[in-house]
Design goal:
The chain has 9 helices and 18 strands. It is of the alpha+beta class. The model has no long low-confidence stretch (mean pLDDT 96). Bound molecules: zinc ion.
């Protein structure tokens, strides 16, 4: 099976500018038309604004569980990056295909479309399905609506393959993520009289200190999963903003921070510990000025993925894609949501490397696309035989 058509499809997909903040409807319309021309119907699940859509398509019998291939259509921005090649068109050079999203993850989507078209010509015993989402790059936001629809469907897939770039190696896990924001309210004043009021930056520092102490505790005493490079749950402050001038006691400070949890840890328990700390810090500050406080809100979260390697679905994938080592990934995917919402076993396996993702001159090796085409062709063979 040659990768010629996958490459042609990838050229079309790369030409669609689907940076997360923009509409993905042109790409979705393209996919719908392409599949429709081969007799494959698609269902769209729109966002509230009507400018973005998820797409679900299926080929083969409708009344039995199948395999769903999952990919996100959005890509990260290119602004501020030193691209030497045009980001929104395909450039093929030295065995590589360059373009924004080539690795993350339009390369996989191209191979998946090719596979669906091939499968539509065959008599499958189990369906091959495609789930395309929007707004993945901002916290797996869009796919949730699609999962609501799939949750209500009479038949669910027996396996979900998320095609995030793993160099076609098999992965069964990733950490969950909880993004948090805190607004610290103090009271402004002349810096010469700083002790008479509450400095919002100082409140922020107290909260950062709590985050760091919690990390130290988790590191020393928390659960561990040796399959990860960092084998425990992590906490991290990514942004700390506040202050106007040196001689003004700042009245406001904003923090963005996160928890990335392994499966053994419940992120809500950690959020609760931080909330208790927030209340203690606020109470102390209110003894000085009554309006002083920290407000902490959860901005976004997605669950981790922890598919058991003893799952039949993992053995099924291994039967046509033997791997000596099964990985856990440092980055998150929509797989955790597929698993949590639908109860469907999920593996992550896709062409290209996460090392090339989100960078200038992002690329995928043509050989990786060929491997993915071959992988999906073997999957189709299984769906004919099952
Ligand atoms: Zn991705």
């Amino acid at each position: 099976m040659s990768g010629t058509r996958s490459l042609a499809l990838l050229a079309d997909l790369l030409g669609q500018r689907t940076v997360t903040r923009e509409s993905n409807l042109a790409l979705i319309a393209y996919v719908r038309e392409l599949l429709g021309a081969h007799g494959i119907a698609s269902t769209l699940v729109m966002d509230d604004t009507g400018t973005k859509a998820n797409l679900f398509a299926s080929t083969g019998p409708e009344d039995v569980p199948g395999v769903v291939l999952s990919g996100h259509t959005d890509v990260v921005p290119v602004e501020g990056q030193a691209w030497t090649l045009p980001p929104f068109e395909l450039t093929q050079r030295d065995g590589r295909v360059y373009g924004r999203g080539s690795a993350d993850m339009k390369g996989f989507i191209a191979c998946a479309l090719h596979a669906l078209i091939e499968a539509s010509k065959l008599r499958l015993k189990r369906p091959l399905q495609l789930a395309l989402s929007y707004d993945e790059e901002i916290g797996c936001v869009g796919v949730r609506r699609l999962l609501d629809v799939l949750h209500a469907a009479p038949v669910r897939p027996f396996l979900c393959i998320v095609g995030e770039p793993t160099l076609m190696r098999l992965a069964t896990g990733h950490k969950g993520k909880t993004a948090l924001h805190a607004t610290c309210h103090g009271r402004e004043g002349h810096s010469a009289q700083a002790p008479l009021t509450v400095n919002a930056l100082h409140l922020g520092c107290d909260l950062v200190s709590e985050v760091r102490q919690l990390q130290a505790r988790v590191t020393a005493q928390g659960a561990r999963d040796g399959a990860y490079d960092v084998p425990y749950t992590t906490l991290h402050v990514g942004k700390f903003n506040g202050g106007v001038a040196l001689n003004i006691v700042p009245n406001r400070c904003d923090l963005d921070f996160e928890i990335r949890n392994i499966a053994q840890d419940d992120p809500q328990a950690l959020v609760d510990l931080l909330q208790t700390a927030v209340e203690r810090i606020s109470a102390q500050a209110q003894a000085v000025v009554p309006e002083a406080r920290i407000e902490m809100v959860e901005v976004n979260s997605y669950p981790g993925l922890d598919t058991s390697v003893t799952e039949d679905a993992v053995a099924f994938v291994q039967s046509f894609h033997p791997q000596t080592e099964v990985l856990k990934l440092a980055f998150g995917t929509e797989g955790g949501l597929f698993s949590a919402r639908l109860g469907v076993p999920v593996v992550v396996c896709g062409p290209g490397s996460i090392t090339q993702a989100h960078k200038p001159d992002e690329y995928v090796e043509v050989e990786q696309l060929a491997q993915c085409d071959a992988f999906l062709a073997r999957l189709i063979g299984q769906l004919q035989a099952l």
